[in-house]
Design a protein that fits this description.
It is a single chain. The protein is an alpha/beta fold. The protein has a single domain, classed as Ribonucleoside hydrolase-like (Inosine-uridine Nucleoside N-ribohydrolase, Chain A). It contains twelve helices and eight strands.
Length: about 290
């Protein structure tokens, strides 16, 4: 859904999609990205396969939530192009090193690709305009452990490296994304569009809605990743405050995002609220275009 939203938004110059081991293995993520872009009519956007595993911990996946394909019951068309021959980390290093203007990075999975690139070539930070990350949780605790959100838990060391890179960072965690839910009424509005893209989105989200109902007893799964693109399009729909965020890496607190408000050395904006109805209306308005 985040890819569909980005693909339908001409305000964004979508230079590339970099995949990473996240909810499913990186090979599956790469195939999904290619298929989603093909369905959205954006087969012109290159896809770079990224890191297969986290920096220092064993991989964890969430196919029990998102299905073996990572997309629930949705079936995407065959891609119109192959993934690019170089890997995502190499592309990031080359692109950020040579950028005539700083580039905005939207991270909707574990931060392994960027952390690896920053470790190999620290000077590339100068080529980054800002980073918007879906990850972490404060008041909401976590969704893979009681203390951690999945993306930070999957590669906490990578999250720490990115948070320490010194560039402008906005972090959108569960405290905000859980405010934007796929309620039955919203699902009906999406389904009423009737296009192949809308149907694919409905199929993805309805699968997760069912799982959320069974596991959490919640009405409507959260639209986590689209919040990143929505923020880039309409930051006025969000509230945020400067904070100090650290990603914990050890023991039962692994992946916990320690958020310190009022810190003199804030390293990020922490998003606390979204205008959910306006955000969902914007999402639908863009899906209609595809």
């Amino acid at each position: 859904m985040a890819l569909f939203l980005a693909a339908a938004s001409p305000e964004l110059d979508l230079k590339a999609v970099c995949t990473v081991a996240g909810n499913v293995r990186v090979e599956t993520c790469t195939a999904n990205a290619l298929g989603a872009l093909a369905l959205a009519g954006r087969g012109d956007v290159p896809v770079f396969g990224g890191c297969e595993s986290p920096l220092k911990v064993d991989p964890v996946f969430a196919d029990h939530i998102h299905g073996e394909s990572g997309l629930g019951r949705a079936i995407l068309p065959p891609p119109r192009r192959d993934a690019e021959p170089i890997d995502a980390v190499s592309w990031l290093i080359e692109t950020l090193s040579a950028a005539e203007a700083p580039v905005t990075l939207a991270i909707t999975g574990p931060a392994t690709n960027l952390a690896t690139a920053l470790t190999r070539a620290p000077d590339i930070a100068a080529g980054i305009a800002e980073i918007v990350i879906m990850g972490g949780a404060d008041i909401e605790g976590g969704n893979i452990t009681p203390h951690a959100e999945f993306n930070f838990y999957a590669d906490p060391h990578a999250a720490g490296i990115v948070l320490a890179c010194g560039r402008p960072i906005t972090v959108i965690g569960l405290d905000t994304t859980l405010q934007l839910r796929c309620t039955p009424a919203r699902m009906d509005r999406l389904n009423a569009i009737g296009s192949p893209v809308a149907r694919a989105g409905w199929d993805m989200m309805e699968h997760v809605n069912t799982i959320y109902g069974e596991i959490y007893g919640a009405e409507g799964a959260a639209l986590h990743d689209p919040c990143v693109i929505l923020y880039l399009l309409r930051p006025d729909l969000f509230d945020a405050e400067p904070v100090r965020i650290a990603a914990l890496t050890e023991g039962e607190m692994r992946g916990h995002s320690a958020v310190t408000r009022g810190s003199a050395d804030a390293n990020a904006l922490w998003v606390t609220r979204i205008d959910a109805e306006a955000a969902f209306a914007l999402l639908l308005e863009r899906i209609v275009r595809l």
